[in-house]
Amino acid sequence: MLLRKLISTISLFLLFMMSTALAQEERPASPTTVEEEIFRVVEQMPIFYAEGCPESPYAAARACADAEVERLINEHLHYPTAATDAGVEGNLAVAFVINPDGSTRDHRVIRELGYGTGAEAIRVVKEYLVRWRPGLQGGVPVSVQYRVPFRFRLSLIED
Predict the structure, then answer these.
(1) Contact between 1 and 7 (Cβ < 8 Å)
(2) Over the stretch 37-84, which tens digit does the pLDDT of each residue have?
(3) Distance CA 135, CA 44 (A)
(4) Can you spell out the DSSP letters for 17-67?
């Protein structure tokens, strides 16, 4: 009887050990690299860094920075000759990622109008809209997807 209990206990122990070993083999290996999350909306959205704009309150800093973005676009956006000749008008947007360090990457055009308008909008973003205060989530700088709209109107071209 004692021998039977001992064999039963050893069998159960071996069965437990084998099932534990099998469960560990089935678990996926932990990833060595963590894919960066890119947010679309965060607690505090990124703000263009503009000289002379206040750091806070957020609303005042945002309004000042947005006005500076609009000024830079109006000053540096050139209507492509091909678009002028073709009579192309409309709106497009440039989407890009603002990194936790405030730099930008992954620029792309949304709603392309053609005739060089998208390339010109990306040129303006890459050359003049380069310094940003990063977006914050939980007080920590994170990567944020961002869009800047552009308007191409023939009536706005100065002769």
Answers:
(1) no
(2) 999 999 999 999 998 999 889 999 999 999 999 999 999 999 999 999
(3) 5
(4) HHHHHHHHHHSPPPPSSPPPPEESS-SB--EE--TT--S-SHHHHHHHHHH
